Amino acid sequence: MNRLQAITAALPAKGVDGILISNITNVRYLSGFTGSSGFLIITPKERYFITDFRYQQQAEREAEGFEISIVNDEVSGFLVRKAQAAGINVLGVESSVTYAFYRGLLRKGVRLKALTGLVEDIRKIKDPLEMRLIKRAIDRAQRAFLMTKPYIRAGMTETGISGLLGENLKKAGCRTLPFDIIVASGKNGAMPHVRPTGRKIRPGDLVIIDWGGEADGYFSDMTRTLLMGGGNMSGKIDIYNTVLLANMEAIKSVSEGVHARAVDRTARDIIKKAGYGDFFGHGTGHGVGLDVHELPRISRIGRETIRRGMVFTVEPGIYIPGVGGVRIEDMVLAGAGGPSVLTSLSKTPEIIN
User: Are residues 81 and 185 in the same domain?
Assistant: First the structure.
């Protein structure tokens, strides 16, 4: 069953005759269109693509199998008329639409039903093409890191490392970056998503580097933590080894049919047993694909059961105010025989002098 078939097969159970896709990432996933503005209306029989003049030729080239309409004025009225012409009595809309857009459709006299996560649930399982692109995004990110690592030393700034890594990601083939690179050294490392600053790396620092790559719109996400030699390392190697054990055991726990919460609990219990439970506050992982954060959620409140073909991160961490932090993040594929770790950069504790 292909993506569009999966969508139309789900419509009757949702109580709708068709669905309006407005999330541009979902538009791409279902149609192949890579532009920044477009809508889909999908029924069991019809496939409509609606965009504006800027993307007419691109849509004709990329959105194969869709009837293309070009609308250059108020779009909500056109969408409603198109849905009515297709015989849709109840139109499903993605719950992520803005309230103003939703109200605009309602004012045109169509019956609407908000649907949550219909396309996103299908996106959780990656097909062979998606896997090739994700692996390419991982390879580009890893090559960029290995190009950057020899230049990381005491005295270099967080922004200097971030800038150099960003340049090397572009050299490795990434057209865009999935998110702002995180470089957090020393006390800054106690803040999981802090922005790089002008702080200079010092001997004895833990240095968290969190970055990702891109390949044809698909992303990767990984983190490594470096230990700078020549300063006070008291307790820091213990923190590192605790996070590493949590990372490795959580990965081992991944298998088809296991609940996402169980994977999270495996990592969390190890960190708690080591006495650092109060210093691990975020989820253990998240899906990665066309978005750098997508389903499944590997967390205490994750709702998913692990299924074959899911790709997600495993990224436990410990963050101690006044000391710093450690995070180790890999990307994992859930397979029939267990987990496959897609990232291959070394995780062995390494002191950089």
Answer: no
Q: Answer yes or no: do 119 and 144 share one domain.
A: no
- Tell me the CATH number at 266: 3.90.230.10
Inter-helix orientation angle 158-171/128-148, to 10°: 130
Q: pLDDT tens digits, residue range 169-217?
A: 999 999 999 999 999 999 999 999 999 999 999 999 999 999 999 999 9
Please give the pLDDT value at position 1.
Answer: 59
Contact 318/282 with Cβ under 8 angstroms?
no
**Domain count across the chain:** 2
CA distance 7 to 121: 10
Res 39 pLDDT > 90: yes
Same domain, 142 and 265: yes
pLDDT in tens, 277-331: 999 999 999 999 999 999 999 999 988 999 999 999 999 999 999 999 999 999 9
CATH of the domain at 117: 3.40.350.10
pTM of the entire predicted model: 0.95
Q: How far apart are CA 201 and CA 161, in angstroms?
A: 10
* Owning domain of residue 77: 3-123
Residue 183 and residue 292 share a domain? yes
End-to-end CA distance of the chain: 54
Closest CA to 152 of 140, 168, 138: 168
